[in-house]
Amino acid sequence: MDLEYPPEAEDFRLEIAGWLKENLPDDWGDPGFSLTPQERKAFNEEWTAKLYAGGWICASWPTEYGGKGLSLLQQVVLNEEFARAGAPLRADFFGDTLVGPTILQWGTEEQKQQFIPGILRGEISWCQGFSEPDAGSDLAGLKTKAELDGDEWVINGQKVWTTQAHFADYIFLLARTDPDAPKHAGISYLLVPMKQPGVEVRPIEQIDGSAEFNEVFFTNVRCPKENVIGGVNNGWKVAMTTLGFERGTSSTTGHRRFQKEFDEILATARRKGRDSDPLIRQRLARSWSNIKLMQINGYRTLTDVLNGTHTTAALGACNKMFWSEAHQETMLLGMDILGMEGQILQGDDGADTLLPGARRAKAGYAVNNLQSLFFFSRSETIWGGTAEIQRNIVGERVLGLPKEPKPQ
Fold this sequence. Notes:
Layout: H1 7-23, H2 37-54, H3 72-85, H4 93-106, H5 109-120, E1 126-129, E2 145-149, E3 152-159, E4 170-176, E5 187-193, E6 199-204, E7 213-224, H6 235-244, H7 256-271, H8 278-307, H9 312-338, E8 354-355, E9 359-360, H10 369-377, H11 387-398
Parallel strand pairs: 1-4
Antiparallel strand pairs: 2-3, 3-7, 4-5, 6-7, 8-9
């Protein structure tokens, strides 16, 4: 790691800090500060308007499309200052982080004018249609097909683990548009309206009662011919770009959520007197060390990206494998510290309870924060690339080991 923020980045940091101080409530961040649900709703509406007026939503986007044209390092500084203040920076993950930048890179001018303003203003909600029942880690094995019928694509197939599909206006999905082409070719990247006949969304209820994942079925669903991003049969390359946008700007702040969870676990250990147990103390020290490694790896990632020396797939595989498994280890420690208390529902018994990750709890199954985090952590070695696939990538692309034999 060889990273030193230049003076202009630090000047920008002062600008962000000054804006936050001027626009956040006077007592924001003070001990005991809290908002009622009604106050929280009003704050969120007012805060989003302030962010938009200040130009901080999608601030790295080009100025001609409503952004500030921030450099990568400026975007990192922006994220750091908002995280330091504990201030929410609107993040419509699918719109702001994935499909929006993809449209900016691959879309036509007409597509940019059609979709970018709505994403920027938060008027279009999105979901991602990549995974299928038989095409998760092997994404190129997808079977959803799109056939051209005049000026429209007709789509048939199924997607799964589609987050927020029940709220989305559009889905950006991969479909096979040339069944005779090789597996990684013949795929196109389509922007498909969700509110139409033939789209069926079935929630997948999880163990904690939340259901932000969905199955989505497409039966003769229509999509305008011009809603292909990056050209027909070029979807694989476009999709790899989309997945690459997940890394970079959050590299120096990604560890903070794990630190916050660890602090809660440590406080629980002290409350229950478990911090005097030598085995628990050792596990706490290991979890703290893992979080510090995440922080260091984040700076290494940023350094590589800034210097153009990174290998995205290999570096991303290493980091994804490490943090997902370390997080599972930490959350298991939290449950062990709770002991038998962890087997009792400890949250608010109401359907409007908001769980980590903006997931809504189910009435009658009232898990608390740590319990919900424990359940969710079990999935993290699966989504975004399974741990087994990450090990193959590291072995083959970093260590130069032979490829895994194909099943006979």
